[in-house]
Amino acid sequence: MNTVPNPADLQHLDLFTDLPEAALAAIAREARVRKLPKGTVIFTQGRRAGFCHALIKGRVRISQADGTGAQLLVRFIGPGDMFGTMALFTDGRYPAEAVTVLDSVEVSWSEAALRNLMRVYPQIGLNIIGILGARIREVQERLREMSTQRVECRIANALLRLAERAGQPVAGGTAISFPVMRRDLAEMCGATLHTVSRVLTAWQKRKLLTTTRQHLTIRRMATLREIALHQLVE
Fold first, then answer.
1. d(CA 230, CA 148)
2. Is there a contact between 52 and 111 (Cβ–Cβ < 8 Å)?
């Protein structure tokens, strides 16, 4: 069921950083908010894009497929992040698929509403530029890793990024706050599932991390950082 969002929920979105309360109230009136259960497909790759999306609660998996059906995990979207927006400024079609991996609350604006809001509140346009610039830097970093680093380093870097964005302190380590499958890590790192499974099993034996039912906890963060920097120590 679609409802109007609470303006207070919007102040935590990167899209509306540095906007006053009066602006957030006007922006909320142009939005739709939806509660989406785990496993909901928000949009599919190649579909015509009509909305700018942002996440208030939950987690969303963004992935791309090539002509052979091979999957690439682009990123996980967390609370405060926007997604599906670049298509509005390119060819008008979503370049990837978005699926909820937790029960989520999503808010969105139509293309017409977003463009009008950008004219009224230019800060939104500046925020979008900053967000997309950060995404481009991340893509460049991942491309550099895939072309220059061995697979153990790439897996370590992927885990560190997940911990930075979705890590929660627990007894004896940092837990990733949503289910992460080994297939996800393989797609993030450009590695095979067999290779990722082999590396994670070895790291579990060394007590660097533990995995239980798709939930992963990093036990030795400093060692993982050393692996990511090519400085493997025991």
1. 11
2. yes
Domain check: are 114 and 167 in the same one? no
- Total number of domains in the chain: 2
State how far the Cα of 172 lies from the Cα of 167, in Å rounded to an integer.
Answer: 13
Separation CA 114–CA 117 (nearest Å): 5
Same domain, 141 and 156: no
Predicted model pTM: 0.88
Both 96 and 196 in a single domain? no
Residue 37 resides in a domain: yes
Query: What pLDDT was estimated at residue 2?
Result: 55
Task: Say if residue 104 is in the same domain as residue 207.
Answer: no
Cβ-based neighbour number of residue 225 at 10 Å: 13
Q: In angstroms, rounded to a whole number, what is the distance separating the alpha carbons of residues 161 and 78? A: 12
Instruction: Provide the CA 207 distance to its chain's centre, in angstroms.
Output: 27
Give me the percent of the chain exceeding a pLDDT of 70. 97
